Amino acid sequence: MSSISEKSMLPSRLLSCLIAFSLFLLISTSLSLIEFHQNSFIPKSLLQFTIVDTQIPVKNPVFDNRISDKGKTTIQDSNPRKLSCDKSRALLKVYMYDLPPEFHFGLLGWEGSVNQTWPSVSDRNKIPSYPGGLNLQHSIEYWLTLDLLASNAKNVVRPCSVIRITNSSEADVIFVPFFSSLSYNRHSKPRGTEKFSVDRILQEKMVEFLKGRKEWKRFGGKDHLIVAHHPNSMLIARKKLGSARFVLADFGRYPVEIANIEKDVIAPYKHMVSTIPDDNSARFDERPTLVYFQGAIYRKDGGAIRQELYYLLKDEKDVHFTFGSVQSNGINLAGKGMASSKFCLNIAGDTPSSNRLFDAIASHCVPVIISDEIELPFEDVLDYSEFCIFVRSADAVKKGYLLNLLRSVKREKWTRMWRRLKEISEHFEYQYPSRDSDAVDMIWQSVWRKKMLTELNVHRKNRYSRSQLK
Ligand SMILES: *[C@@H]1O[C@H](CO)[C@@H](O)[C@H](O)[C@H]1NC(C)=O
Ligand SMILES: *[C@@H]1O[C@H](CO)[C@@H](O)[C@H](O)[C@H]1NC(C)=O
C-alpha cells in the first residue's frame, strides 16, 4: 500500500510471499477451528487458543475513559467479576524493566514512597492520571503499562492476552516502560539554565541502561517492545534501538531499516471526541453535512494537499472544511460536527497519520482517507475498505472527483459501512481496565502476531544453517 512498506519488502519478495501465504494458512486454520464473534469480523478468540474462559462482558458502555471536566482521564469502576490469568493462559509472557519512576509515572507527577517503582493499580482512585488535552492522543504508553501492572493485581478483571512475569529468561517480550510521548510533549525543551532537555537526558540514560542489560544482549534487543507513538518521541534513541519492536503511529519519520511493517506495530491514536453510543448514532438522513474536515494547515511534506482540497471544497454548501487545530475546548464541537456528517476527511498532514481517523471512527462518520503513506492499526485482521473510503492524493485534487465520488455513495452502501463502523469501533478504545478486543488487547495480539512472523523467518533461515552444524 505505501511505498515505505513496499521498499522494505523488495529485498526478499519471494520470502514475503511465503510468509504471507503461511500467515494466511495459519489464520484460516484458526478460523475454521474457532467460532466467530457475531458482531465483529475478528473472532474474539481467534488468536487466543489458550483461553478457555472468555466470559468477560464485551459491550459495557461504562468503560469509556472520557476527558472529564478537568481535562484529565477518569477511570471508572469495572464489573468485579473475577477471572484469573496465569502464565499458562496468556498469549505473551512479558517482562517489564523496573525503570525508575522518572521514566514513566514520575512524568505524570506521581511520587511513590521510598523505593516504590510502580503505583498500585488495584485501587483505581490511586492511579495517576495522564495529562489531558492533546497529550492524550499518544497516551498508548500509559495504557499498555497499566495493563501489565494490572495483570499482577488480584482484583482487576481484564483479558489474558499478556501477563507480566518477573523472570526475564522466560519472557516472550521485554517491555520498556518509558513514557516517551509524554517526555517529548512535556520536556523536549531545555529549561532555564539546563543545557539539555529532560527528554534527551532520559533517552540517553535509557540507551545506556538497555545496552548494558543481559536481556538486551540476549537477542540484540529484538524481543524488546518500545512505545514511541508521538512521531517525534525517541528522536535521539531510535537509531540506537532500531533492532527493537516499536509501537508507532506511522513510519513517516523513520528510515525503513529502523521501523517497518514487518517488525513494528501500528497503534491507534486515542481518539479525542467522545464515543457515540451505538443506539444514539445518527443515520444517513440524520447527518446533514456531507463532508467534514477540521485541521491544521500544512504547507510542507505531504500536507500541501490540505490546502488544495480546501480551495476545491470551500464553497460547497454541505461541506464543513475549516483550518485551525482543534484545541481541547473545541473537541466537543468537532465531535458534534463529525457525528452529524456522513463522511469525515482524513488528509495527510505533516505526518501520514493523525488522530482524526480515530475521531471519525468513534463518531461513526465514514472516514475518507487521503494519505498515500498511511499505515493502519491491525490491518492484518481488519479490512478497512469495509468501513473507509480510500482516495489517492492524485485523484483527490482533480476538480469534482471527490464530491462526485462521495455523492455517488447512496444510503444503502453508506449504511453498510456505518454498521461496520459501529462493530469495529470497540477495537479503538483505550480504557482501564482493558477489555476483550479493545485497543490495548488488540495491540498485544498484534505484537504476538508480529512475533510469530519473526519466528517463522528465523526458523526458515535455520533450515540449512543448523543442519550443517551436525
Ligand atoms: C531503599 O533502597 C536502598 C538501596 O537498595 C536501601 O538501602 C534502603 O533501605 C531502602 N529503603 C527503604 C525504605 O526500603
Ligand atoms: C528463570 O527461568 C530460567 C529458565 O526457565 C530458569 O533456569 C531460572 O532458574 C529462573 N530463575 C529464577 C530466579 O526463577
UniProtKB/TrEMBL annotation:
An example of a GO molecular function for this protein is: glycosyltransferase activity
| Chief localization | Golgi
- GO CC annotation: Golgi membrane
What family is it from? Answer: Belongs to the glycosyltransferase 47 family.
Q: Which Pfam families match?
A: Exostosin_GT47
Keywords, alphabetical: Glycosyltransferase, Golgi apparatus, Signal-anchor, Transferase, Transmembrane
Kindly give the membrane topology term recorded for this protein. Single-pass type II membrane protein
Q: Where in the cell is it found?
A: Golgi apparatus membrane
Q: Please give the name of this protein.
A: Exostosin GT47 domain-containing protein
Q: Which domain of life is it from?
A: Eukaryota
Sequence ranges assigned to domain Exostosin GT47 in this UniProt record: 91-404
Which InterPro entries does its entry note?
Exostosin, Exostosin_GT47
